[in-house]
Specification:
Blueprint lengths: L3 H8 L21 E4 L5 E6 L1 H10 L6 E4 L5 H9 L3 E4 L2 H9 L10 H11 L7 E7 L7 H14 E12 L7 E10 L2 E10 L7 H7 L5 E6 L4 E7 L1
Parallel strand pairs: 3-4, 3-5, 5-6
Antiparallel strand pairs: 1-2, 2-8, 6-10, 7-8, 9-10
Helix pairs in contact: 4-5
Length: about 230
């Protein structure tokens, strides 16, 4: 159940901060586990080398500012703040749907709509964040919108910081599952499939290197769900 503070964050300003105690995994969660949550949602708990790399970057530091584009979940809020950091949350896909319609029904190359979307989802000062959990949202963006979002991320994230993004590795799919990601440990994620969605574009390693060509480096990890985990160093 969401706490009153989390509900307030969802209704109120984006920079509201929650604190809590990071949840401890149940016995046996360190191995791969499949099951169902309430309501029949499929979920798995698995190792994530990309997430481990992200947390290795911030290990031993405190007071950093992290952006989560997967929307506010109590589990992620508690985990990040328990490490001594500030977490900002944006429901990126919800804002995308509200601006361009579900599955990109509205033209994503319209400059006015792109600017409106950036104001709603990524209106932050330059160099505001020390890291971003992008998750799997970028492959739902058409080229013009994607370019604008990547440029904005480059602007609002401090140099030498890390971003974590996921992309499906099969570039022939007509529809891809979309997920929620909940942090269990620094190298362990609970992944819950929420449905499927038509990707605006799919990527291979070469196209991702081109997409993040203005960043310092890009590193890839392939998972058993055919998700390519990508660590981008700003």
């Amino acid at each position: 159940m969401l706490t009153d503070r989390l509900k307030s964050m969802l209704r109120g300003p984006r920079d509201a901060q929650l604190s809590g105690v990071a949840p401890k995994p149940a016995d046996g969660q360190r191995s791969f586990f499949s099951g169902r949550q309430a309501g029949g949602v499929e979920h798995t708990t698995r190792q994530s080398r990309g997430l481990e790399e992200f947390f290795n970057y911030i290990r031993g530091q405190s007071g950093l500012t992290i952006l989560d584009l997967g929307g506010a979940t109590q589990q992620n809020v508690s985990f990040i703040t328990n490490l001594g950091h500030r977490l900002y949350s944006e429901d990126f896909l919800q804002i995308l749907n509200e601006t361009f319609g579900a599955d990109g029904a509205v033209d994503q190359s319209n400059p006015g709509r792109i600017e409106y979307f950036l104001r709603q989802a990524l209106e932050y000062p330059e160099g505001h964040f020390d890291g971003v959990l992008i998750w799997d949202v970028l492959e739902y963006l058409a080229p013009a919108l994607l370019t604008a979002v990547v440029e904005r991320l480059h602007k609002i994230v401090r140099p030498k910081s890390y971003m974590l993004s996921f992309f499906h590795s099969d570039n022939k799919l007509q529809a891809v599952p979309f997920y929620t990601f909940r942090i269990q440990e620094v190298n362990l994620l609970q992944v819950a499939q929420q449905g499927s969605r038509h990707p605006a574009q799919l990527f291979n390693n070469r196209s991702l290197e081109k997409l993040f060509g203005s960043f310092e480096s890009v590193k890839f990890f392939l998972t058993r769900e055919s998700l390519r985990e990508v660590i981008i160093k700003v």
